[in-house]
Structure formats: C-alpha cells, structure tokens
Amino acid sequence: MLNEISDKLTGVGKAVDSLDPIPATQMPRGYGGTAILWKKHLDSIISPLTIGNERIQGIEVTSDPNLIILSVYLPCKGSSQHLSDFQDCIAQLHEIVSTYQQSHQIIIGGDFNEDIVNGPTSQRKTCVNDFMKEHDFETKYNGSTFIHSNGCDTTAIDYFIFQNLYKHTVLEISKLDIISNVSDHYPIKLILQYHHPVKQINSSNTSVKCKIKWDKVDTQLYESLIASEISDSKPTIETIEDVTNAFKNLNQIIVKSTKAAAPAIKMGKKDLNYK
User: Which residues form the Endonuclease/exonuclease/phosphatase domain (predicted)?
Assistant: First the structure.
C-alpha cells in the first residue's frame, strides 16, 4: 500500500499487529505501525533493512558516512505488559545501534509514547534515557506533540534522537502546525546536512565525443537539411509542453543535419607488433 501512495515515492513499513493471532473476522490488520517513505530518484542509494521487530523500521542510506534511519512506534501504556514490551524495543534498538555505530551515522525518530525529556520519572523514561546516555544520543524538545481528543495538547511523545558525534549535521528539528493534519500527533521535521559521494563513471561505458570540424562541414547541405526538416515538422505551439517538445525536436534536427553534413570521423588504430 505504501508504494501506491504516489508514483514518485517508495516506501517500507510494518504493522504492529502483523504477528498477532488475529482471527479472519477481525481482518484487515493495521492497528498501528511505522513506515519510511522516500523519493524514487533516491532508490539507488537507499536499502531497506530487515532489522528490529514489528515496531522498528530501518533503512540504510549510502552517504559519507553511511546513514541508518530508524522509524519507531514504541508501545503505549494500555496493556498490562506495556513495560516489558517497551523494554524489549529499547533492547533491540541497543543491539542495532551497537552493530552500526562505529561505521554509520544513526538517527532514530518516531512515536516514543513517553515524554523522555520533561515527563515524570518512570521506568519507561529511565529506560530510554539510559539507552541515550550509553550511546551518547541527544534530542531536542519541541513542546507538546500529542493532541488529546478534547483538542488540547497533552504531552510530548514524538522525537528525533541523534548521536552527539554528528550533532553538527542536524540543522533543524521543529514541530509543524499544518492545518490539514488529521492525525492526533503534530508532525516533527528534521533537516540533516547530508553528503552523497559522486558516483564514479565506468570508463568502459563511456563513448568518445569528437569535436566537429566546422571548416570541413558542407555548410550548404547543412543549411538545406535544417530548413527542410523544420519545414516538414510544422509544430503547433499552444502550451508550455509544446514549447519544450519543439526545442527537443529542433535539437534532434540539428544533430541529424550535423551528422549528415560533417565528414566521417576516422578513428586511428595503433600498429600492433606481434612477436
């Protein structure tokens, strides 16, 4: 479903109840979950990761350094085993961070279902704070992010946390107040300074582009071919798209006429000395 949102986006995600023994009569699943979306032109540098439980979704981004982004939806306090479920998620985050922290920058964002900054002392808050302290993570408090059904802000439970080592790359973390937002959470935005290494071009796939020697070109033939092609094309210009297509067609005419009027390029070969 995520990949059906837009033909310009790719996405991966998990449902928190995907492993629950839900009867067929209670389908479809999808009580809640976590997901990551990105623009399709970034597909070549992003790899989904099969790590964490159904409340943790991760991707790896090829960069300098490589980047791990984790989206989380930690358990709320509605069940009798919420604390053990919460601690299990933090333990899995600990394992993931321990695996990647020496080679990757790591950013974790999502619904922590706990005020980890200004909330009252609790085992859940202590669990997150100890995790952040052990791995030298920081965060920024942006005020209340959860909206109660009565329409009033209640608490701050949505965060981005990041390594202190890469603090200088986090340019902004802010809460967005969007009129069209239908969620009971405010969106949180993070702007990251990111360096993507330039892809090396494979020399075996490159072609030699020779410079046109215009003093050798049959200019009369060149002019005649261009005039004939333009006369035959007769483009209709009514929209911006028509203008774009007309320019593309003109470029093709110029290239075609140049190839026809310019002398053929002779590619020299070095003499081979067989012994």
Answer: 68-188
